[in-house]
Design goal:
Blueprint: H1 20-40, E1 64-67, E2 73-75, E3 78-80, H2 82-90, H3 94-99, E4 101-105, H4 111-123, E5 129-131
Length: 140
């Protein structure tokens, strides 16, 4: 018989999957996720003053947003609505936005009001947000 009808000299098709390219791709993806995962988490910077140390001297008055017990929001000493606060913060210079802003909220203010104010501050272009707190009293 000729070459058309005989398969004795030829090998059949191999049905095994070549896993080497699959492993290569999976290792590359693993490395990418390991490198980018720490960058995806965002923390909230909180500076807690200690009772035994003095405050650092500042040349200028820091930018402070205050939320009173009733839920009223103030920028410095001016009462504002959420929309007005965002508008006032957006028009500030990039240098002021780099310096950061501080949020001082009464402890009885609902959590939702604080988080929505923080979201307004972040939406206005401020990346550095510090929380003003008082140190807890220690038993003597």
């Amino acid at each position: 018989m000729g070459p058309i009808g005989s398969n004795r000299g030829k090998r059949g098709l191999v049905a095994d999957i070549n896993v080497t390219p699959l492993v290569d791709v999976m290792l590359v993806l693993l490395i990418i996720f390991m490198v980018t995962a720490p960058m995806m988490t965002q923390g909230l910077e909180v500076d807690l003053p200690e009772a035994t140390t003095k405050a650092l001297p500042q040349q200028e008055e820091p930018l402070v947003v205050t939320i009173k017990k009733e839920g009223d929001v103030y920028l410095k000493k001016e009462k504002m609505t959420s929309a007005t606060l965002q508008q006032q913060l957006r028009i500030m210079s990039p240098e002021v936005k780099k310096e950061g802003i501080y949020l001082r909220a009464d402890k009885n203010v609902p959590y939702g009001v604080v988080t929505s104010t923080m979201a307004d501050i972040h939406a206005a272009g401020f990346d550095k947000l510090g929380m003003i707190t008082v140190p807890a009293e220690r038993d003597k």
